[in-house]
Design brief:
The structure is a single chain. This protein is mainly alpha-helical. It has one domain. It has eight helices and no strands. The longest helix is centred in the middle third of the chain and has 35 residues. The two termini are about 35 Å apart. The relative contact order is 0.18. The N terminus is likely disordered. Keywords: Membrane, Transmembrane, Transmembrane helix.
């Protein structure tokens, strides 16, 4: 028995755009996942007071500190993997173009992408410096298209590609 799957031109186009924009899609999804995760982990107030409350708060702070360190390492690894997939430089071009926009022109999702790159440590963690450099190129209002010529998509097209992967 043979199974045939038919894909229309729009599906092929989306798949091709996704392959070209792998870095942008990866960064976008990572930034948006981080935003949704941080919203769900807001600290809860305690009903009791005194010694036990302080003890729980101290334990929570220690756990939060350990989690933050491991989350940074996970984030660094994720960015390294994304950079390896970003052969066309579309992720860097997206960061560059977003950094060149005024703050009031950015959507919440675009702000999250810039915030992700901004909070990455300044050490070279396998591509982190590339995204940080793209951020600076954009802030200096240089031409992102000339800086990242292998990526033929515009910032708008890259964001549309990211949005197409979101539920």
């Amino acid at each position: 028995m043979t199974t045939t799957i038919a894909v229309g031109f729009s599906g092929v186009g989306l798949a091709a755009a996704g392959a070209v924009a792998a870095g942008a899609v990866g960064l976008g999804l990572l930034a948006l996942a981080g935003r949704r995760r941080s919203r769900s982990r807001s600290p809860k107030p305690y009903a009791s007071s005194g010694y036990h409350k302080k003890r729980r708060e101290t334990q929570r702070k220690k756990a939060t500190s350990l989690n933050k360190d491991s989350e940074e390492k996970i984030l660094q690894r994720a960015v390294t993997l994304i950079r390896k997939q970003d052969v066309t430089g579309c992720g860097m071009k997206l960061v560059c173009e977003l950094a060149g926009l005024n703050e009031d022109e950015l959507t919440a999702d675009q702000r999250e992408i810039l915030k992700l790159v901004d909070k990455l440590p300044n050490e070279d963690g396998g591509g982190i410096t590339d995204y940080k450099a793209a951020l600076e190129v954009g802030r200096s209002l240089s031409s992102c298209s000339q800086t990242f010529p292998l990526c033929s998509l515009t910032g708008t097209q890259l964001m549309q590609t990211i949005d197409s992967y979101l539920p």
